[in-house]
Structures are given as C-alpha cells and as structure tokens.
Amino acid sequence: MDTNGSSNPVTDNTGDRPVSVRTRGLTKAYDGKLALDDLDLEIKKGDIFGYIGPNGAGKTTTIRILAALLWPTRGTAEIEGVDVVRQPRRIKELVGYMPDNFGVYENMTLWEYLDFFGAAYRIPRSKRKRVIEDVLALTDLGPKRDDAVSAFSRGMKQRACLAKTLLHDPQVLILDEPASGLDPRARIELRELLKELQRMGKTILVSSHILTELSTICNTVGIIEKGKLIASGEVRRILESLRAHREFSLELLDPAEASRARAWIAGQAGVKSAEPFGGTVKIVLDATEPEIAALLEGLVAEKIRFTGFREDLVDLETAFMTLTKGELA
Ligand SMILES: Nc1ncnc2c1ncn2[C@@H]1O[C@H](COP(=O)(O)OP(=O)(O)OP(=O)(O)O)[C@@H](O)[C@H]1O
Ligand SMILES: [Mg+2]
C-alpha cells in the first residue's frame, strides 16, 4: 500500500514530501524473543502517523528505538537522515519523546517543572522564560503555571508532559499513547493541539491501541501486530483497500419514491443490497468507481430525484479487526 494519494480527509497530502522517519529491517529481540521483526516504516515530513497495534505488538519498542533510548538488534532507523545508533545525541535534539507513563514530579509547580527540563535541555536562562511562555500558550496551560503538577488531573499531567516535550522545539514528535485515559473533550483538545503542531511543520508519530482514537487525528497509519507491520499508508487508502463492501446512503427528495428507487438500484451492476429507511436508501456496493458513476447517471435518467449520496466510511476499528483476522491476506 503506498502513501501517495490525492484525496485525504485530514491534510493536503501531495505525497512527494521528504521522508522524516525511516526504518529498514528494524528488528529487536529481548532474550532471543522477537519483539520487532524486520520492520520497514516510512513517515513523511508533516505527517501525523498513527501507530496502531494491540498490547505487546511492539509499539513502545519501536518508539524507544526511534528516541535513541534502546538499541535495535538488527536493521536501521533514521530520523531526518540521522541514524539513531550512530548519533543518539543529535536524535535527542531532533525528537520530542513522550513516554506512555510520565513521571510525576512532586512539589513542583508547572513553571518549575518546565524550567527544570528547560535547563536539562540546556536552553539558556535568557531564552528559557520565553520558551516556557510559548509552550504554555500552545498547550493552553498558562493559567496553571503556579499550580503543583502533582495535583493535576491525568489529562492535565499529559498536557504538561507534552509541553515539556516541546521545550526544545523538536522537529519530530513521538508520543506513546498520548490519548489513553483522556476524556472525549481532552481528546479533541489533543487532536487540535497535534494539528496545530502539524501546521507548524512538525512530523508526529502517535501510538494507540484504541483505533477510533486515531482515525480523526492521523492522515497516515501503520498497523503492527506481533512485531510486524501488517498495513501502512493513508488512512483513507487503508480503508478503501479493505472494502469489497462499501456502504452508501442515498437521500431521496421524495420518501414516497423509496421502494421504486430500491427496486431499480438492486438490479444494477456492483450492487450487493439496497434497503430503504424512510427517505434514505442504504446501498452496499462491491463496485468499481465507473460503476458507481454509472449508478448515479442511471438514477438521474430514471428520474429518481435525490439530494445526497454519500459513503458511510468504515472506521479504523472495523478495518483493524478485518486485517488481523487475515481477511486482507
Ligand atoms: N524490557 C523488556 N524485556 C523483555 N521483553 C520485553 C521488554 N519490553 C518489551 N518486551 C516484550 O516485547 C514485546 C513488545 O512490547 P512493547 O512494549 O513494544 O509493545 P506495545 O505495542 O507497546 O504494547 P502496549 O500496547 O501494551 O504498550 C512484548 O512481547 C513484550 O513483552
Ligand atoms: Mg506500549
């Protein structure tokens, strides 16, 4: 599956952007047991890449290798052309890594926490104040600057941790399960924040095992299982490739025409089923694009007047279940 595509719901993906993160044959064994098996990942500059897989799939292992915190057993990993094994220091400048379990720093206000890490990143004292103001503004944490981090809610801690990750203005953000444990509102805020960072030109890898969490955040995804990448590419393309079963809704102008519409549609090429629900006909297709176009032309010719025809997209959860059942082999 390629990552080049024209239509994308999330970003304008021209497909010819340079590669930011690349692994080749990346393999990691713990005590002889493979956690990553010959992984080839490619994330383009400016992508929000969703790294999806069940527990134990190898997400954290990959992420820690990309953050130069863990050595691969075999294979290579590069970020912006920098090899993680040969230049780990440079990687730490390029990458903002947010672990899945962020430490809590007792008795520190948010400002002290950020100042502490700002110093650790060797941001000069003269610049630090401005940098901290910037990340507080970006993460909407300004009003909390004098509050104790230990008293933050989980969502706020996560946000504080993200603010910390942004201090050294990394080009690539690698976030291990940033949305886990967040309520729907916090998740939407996270999504907006990630999109803002994307607009700033950052490349973002975000992992999750909760797939629906990522479908609205990411423009590309990779699905990993038992250390192997089983699919990767544009969210939209992955979903498309999974469908021999595409569902559409046809909104009729006049609900009284539903049964005539249903009878006509059911006889057309590529139509698996057509069922009326009030003024809407639900159509299941296993059709090519020209067949779909012909269906619409036919509706017009038959004077079946409609006000809308849209695809009901399968979500990533369904896509993932289909993939891991091996139905796409
Ligand atoms: N330090 C370690 N020592 C031995 N085995 C490990 C170690 N870390 C991870 N593993 C094993 O490697 C495999 C991949 O683990 P990893 O943490 O990368 O998965 P994950 O996709 O991040 O899972 P989760 O969704 O639970 O976070 C698992 O089988 C795990 O048991
Ligand atoms: Mg993990």
How many independent structural domains?
A: 2
Tell me how many strands there are.
15
Please name the CATH topology of the largest domain: Rossmann fold
Hetero groups in this structure are: adenosine-5'-triphosphate, magnesium ion
Indicate the mean pLDDT: 87
Q: What is the strand arrangement across the widest sheet?
A: 7-8-9-4-10-11
Provide the gyration radius in Å.
24 Å
Q: Distance between termini?
A: 13 Å
Q: Just name the CATH architecture of the largest domain.
A: 3-Layer(aba) Sandwich
Order of helices and strands: EEEEHEEHEHHHEHEHEEHEHEEHEH
Strand residue content: 25-35%
Number of discrete helical segments: 11
* Overall spatial form: elongated
Based on secondary structure, the structural category is alpha/beta
State the CATH class of the largest domain.
Alpha Beta
